[in-house]
Amino acid sequence: xxxxxxxxxxxxGLELGYLRxxxxxxxxxxxxQKTLKKLVxxxxxxxxxxxxxxxxxxxxxxxxxVERANVRLNNLGLDRNxxxxxxxxxxxxxxxxxxxxxxFVFDKDHDNCINVKEWVKGLSVFLRGTFEEKLKFCFEVYxxxxxxxxxxxxxxxxLKNSLHQQSSEEENDEGIKELVDIxxxxxxxxxxxxxxxxxxxxxxxxxxxxxxxFGPCLPExxxxxx
Length: 226
Known about the structure:
Blueprint: H1 16-21, H2 33-44, H3 52-68, H4 80-91, H5 96-106, H6 116-128, H7 131-142, E1 150-151, H8 152-166, H9 173-187, E2 194-195, H10 197-206
Antiparallel strand pairs: 1-2
Helix pairs in contact: 2-3, 3-6, 4-5, 5-7, 8-9
């Protein structure tokens, strides 16, 4: 399904010029200018990585995407399928497991729907987050069961998933278990058999390439909304 974003998986374009091609900057919203201004002010007070003009731009884009996706929800928002389509068509993500996890990280109130505030706040980190913000974001994507730790089993599942997609030869479970052992040896500093945020942060600060060690969950190209 095409949500009218981009046919090029690696075209990352939320520049205002690109948004105009989606007719979202000039889009008519189902709200008056006073309501829109209040919403922009409210969201702008909670995000530091976007200017007010960019927040308004993203609000308009959100409503345009919801309309294109034919989403009909009591609380206007993007469901998981619509959001996954955006992650794929705009940001080139192809990993089903990680796309689902990115959705759940955006969906802060866990209602299985991304509302406009979650959309802008999530993109603030996803696109322009500080190193610390992206550390937290990636860690939240990787702990699959929501307990605040990346377990041995979760590492196994993510590595198996990643290797299956990147290799024409299926990796056997024993080989993946060896990789899990190597990963834990490198990142599990307190030797408790799982990776805490403290472990993850220390490992990534020492070697930045480990930020997305369990699979790509951030856009490859920075987006400029100017």
